[in-house]
Amino acid sequence: MELTKCCGCITCSKETRDTFAEMMNFSLLKDIIFVIFSVSNFCTSIGFNLPYLYMAAQAKTLGISKTEASYLIASIGVANTVGRIILGYIADKPWVNRLLVYNVCLTACGIATAMVPLCTDFNSLMLYCAVFGFTIGAYVGLTSVILVDLLGLEKLTNAFGLLLLFQGIASFIGAPIGGWMYDLTDSYTPAFGMAGLMIALSGLVMFAIPPLQRYQANKAEQKFNSEHLALS
């Protein structure tokens, strides 16, 4: 195996270095569609962890026991598993608009999360957890598929590497922001509101991609036609 230096100091194989270099190729940020998708993923990741972190604490403020609160977290996991399977199956159908499924799920997830303060008992929180777990499954299960649809398979490694970078940064700052909001207000309502707003926003901005794709296609067609006329 041929060894080389990665980042000038770490010894690794040439294949590893080339893969890392491809993942960290920031030239993809010149693509407006990828930028929109990155902004969407960044917003989703800010709010993604907050329901997992604060659901039990929110339940405690409503007088729900620790045992029942643990059921809430478990229900998110069960719904998420079911959501990934069902949404993945649906998205695999050739007649399904995967981007639309992804956008609708994130928007619905964000709206539901923002409405958590309206849940005042165990049953309503359980309903929310089921909705959140199911719809957020689109974010985890369809991201790579949407990337291929939007950018092509040849850019998947680069695009997914950059997305993971943005997701990591957003996940790192999301929970502390929610904790800071609780410290200021002594309530989890602002944290859930912020998480819901970010997740819903991440779905809404993605609705800009289809008209943008049509605009780019029309522009490319016009350019081709003008060049063809100039040559003739």
Relevant terms:
mainly alpha, 9 helices, two-stranded antiparallel ribbon, 2 strands, elongated, 232 residues, 78% helix
Describe the structure in brief:
The chain has 9 helices and 2 strands; from the N terminus they run E-E-H-H-H-H-H-H-H-H-H. By secondary structure, it is mainly alpha-helical. The chain is elongated, with a radius of gyration of 21 Å.
Notes on the structure:
The protein has 232 residues and is mostly helical. The chain has nine helices and two strands. The protein has a two-stranded antiparallel ribbon. The longest helix has 30 residues. It is elongated and about 80 Å long. The termini are far apart. The model has no long low-confidence stretch (mean pLDDT 87).
What's the SSE blueprint?
Blueprint: E1 3-6, E2 10-13, H1 14-23, H2 32-48, H3 50-61, H4 66-91, H5 98-114, H6 122-151, H7 156-185, H8 189-205, H9 209-231
Antiparallel strand pairs: 1-2
Strand content: under 5%
Determine Rg (CA atoms, Å).
21 Å
The helix/strand series, from N terminus to C terminus, equals EEHHHHHHHHH
Which strand order do you get reading across the main beta sheet? 1-2
Which shape, going by the Cα principal axes? elongated
Span from first to last CA?
Answer: 54 Å
Q: What is the count of helical runs? A: 9
